[in-house]
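re: that chain from earlier
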Amino acid sequence: MQRQILFRCPSTGMNVQHRIDDERPENCEPADSYVPVRCPACMSLHFANSTTGKLLNERDRELVPLPRSA
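^ sequence. v structure.
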């Protein structure tokens, strides 16, 4: 069975839909697993979170505060 994820291409800024195979049961797949995705917008390889669709280099600024300089 396949499902779709949505992510923003870091090179073009376009929203991209991609289908991934859902081979494992949901209970077996950890929430922090990333799958390689060939981006149709820029033809590069990105690593997308299989659950949330966020890319590996994306940070959630609410959860990971940026350090401030003094």
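Strands lie at 2-8, 15-21, 34-38, 45-49.
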